[in-house]
Amino acid sequence: ISICRDLPNIEVITFSVNGISDLEPLHQCQNLSELYLRKNNITSLEELFYLKTLPRLRVLWLAENPCCGPDPHRYRMTVLRNLPSLQKLDNQAVTEEELSQALVDGVEITAPPARRSVENGWSASSAAGSATEPESELLSCSLEETNRTQEELDIKPVPRDKYSSFCPQETDCSCKKRNNVLSAILLLMKELDAEGLEIIQQTVARRLQAFQKKELQEE
């Protein structure tokens, strides 16, 4: 997520299912309008402090994070009190009544969260948390998760038959890694102009030719 510090003009970000716990790198993305952070490791709603400075943020998906807590109403009211410009939260439209109620039931966040020690750009507590996660969580990867990410990017979902063909006999971990890399590449492509996209197209064509040649040799 630290790459966002170098992408001030990015408009849509999807980091769902990525173990993210720190939103500080996003506070400079002044053109950000849609942010998808479903199913990460955001433990405190104080992380919203870094989103309060984003004037164009209209869509936020924060569900399935520890910060949502056991009280859905309190969680939603707190988010809306601090981000009153949102039009949609967790795929549910925001109403004028909710915004008014948020002033009463929501908690205002006025300071950033107490930051943990950070080494090499990674939060120490986040790394420790990842190490203790159940193996099933670390290796979770499915066609549904892949398509959910692609839907957030407004990309046509992958057909089930095609998914099975490009992910044969692979571990869930390697498949999940591919999906994360794919999402990152698609996001970065939004920052490229026509010349940059042509370079990407040429590079992809060469890579495909190399893979096809390798497959013919193996046959």
Question: What attributes characterize this protein structure?
Answer:
219 residues; alpha/beta; Leucine-rich repeat, LRR (right-handed beta-alpha superhelix); five-stranded mixed sheet; 8 helices; 7 strands; Cilia- and flagella-associated protein 410
What topology does this entry show?
Layout: E1 12-14, E2 34-36, E3 59-61, H1 72-82, E4 88-89, E5 92-93, H2 96-105, E6 118-119, E7 122-123, H3 124-131, H4 135-138, H5 143-152, H6 160-166, H7 172-189, H8 194-218
Parallel strand pairs: 1-2, 2-3, 3-4
Antiparallel strand pairs: 4-5, 6-7
Question: Summarize this, please?
Answer:
Residues 118-139 are annotated as: Disordered. The chain has eight helices and seven strands.
Describe this structure in words.
This is Cilia- and flagella-associated protein 410. InterPro entries: Leu-rich_rpt (IPR001611), Leu-rich_rpt_4 (IPR025875), LRR_dom_sf (IPR032675), U2A'_phosphoprotein32A_C (IPR003603). Keywords: Leucine-rich repeat, Repeat. It is a single chain. This protein is an alpha/beta fold and 219 residues long. Among the domains are: 104 residues, Alpha-Beta Horseshoe (Leucine-rich repeat, LRR (right-handed beta-alpha superhelix)); 32 residues. 42% of the residues lie in helices and 8% in strands. The strands form two sheets. A five-stranded mixed sheet has the order 1-2-3-4-5. Strands 6-7 form a two-stranded antiparallel ribbon. Helix 1 packs across helix 2. The longest helix has 25 residues. The termini are far apart.
